[in-house]
Amino acid sequence: MNASTPMPTQEELERQEETLVLSRFDETTAVALGNALVAEASAQAAPVVVNIRTADRTLFHAALPGSAPDNDHWARRKSNIVLRKHQSSMLVGILFEAQGKSVGPDFGFDPLEFAAHGGSFPIRVAGVGVVGAVTVSGLASEDDHAMIVRVLGKML
C-alpha cells in the first residue's frame, strides 16, 4: 500500500505533540484508544498492528487481518524510540535525517531494537509528561502516523 498521506513537516509534528495531550491516562484510556484505532483500521481494511505500551507494560495489542509478525517487531522498535526520546518516531527520524545521522552508530541505538520511522506517538499527559507510546505498524510510515494523529484528535 502506498502512502496516501503527505509527509508532515518538523513544525507540524512538533505542533501535533504539543496539542495531542491527554488529561489522564490509565488502562481504560489505553483500551479506548486501542479500540478506536482498531475501528479506524478496520474501516479502511488496513493490515496493521496496534500497540499501546508504557516503558514496562503492554496495555493494548491487536493484530488485524493481513498484518504479519514483522509488524509486531516494527511496532516494538518504533515505540522503543518514542519511549527513549519522548518524541514521535517520525519526528525523531526527521531530526536524525536533518543532522545526517541514523539510529545506529551515530546515536548508539541498536537498529534491531529502535526504529525512527513514522507510526509511534508519545502518550503525553498534561502536567506529567510522556507516559507511554501508541503505535500503528503495517502501512507506509506517513499513514501509520496519520492514523494515530486522527484518532487521538477525535478522542480529545
Describe this structure in words.
The protein is an alpha+beta fold and 156 residues long. Helices cover 47% and strands 17% of the residues. It has helices at residues 10-19, 27-43, 69-85, 89-98, 104-107, 141-155, and strands spanning 49-53, 58-63, 120-125, 129-137. A four-stranded antiparallel sheet has the order 2-1-4-3. Helix 2 packs across helix 6. The mean pLDDT is 95.
Layout of secondary structure:
Layout: H1 10-19, H2 27-43, E1 49-53, E2 58-63, H3 69-85, H4 89-98, H5 104-107, E3 120-125, E4 129-137, H6 141-155
Helix pairs in contact: 2-6
> Any low-confidence stretches, pLDDT <50, length ≥5?
none
Strand content: 15-25%
Strand order in the sheet with the most strands? 2-1-4-3
What composes the largest sheet? Answer: 4 strands, antiparallel
Structural class by sheet pairing and helices: alpha+beta
Please give the count of helices.
6
Number of domains: 1
In short:
With 156 residues, the protein is an alpha+beta fold.
Overview features:
alpha+beta, Beta-Lactamase, 4-stranded antiparallel β-sheet, 4 strands, PduO/GlcC-like_sf, YBR137W-like, PduO/GlcC-like
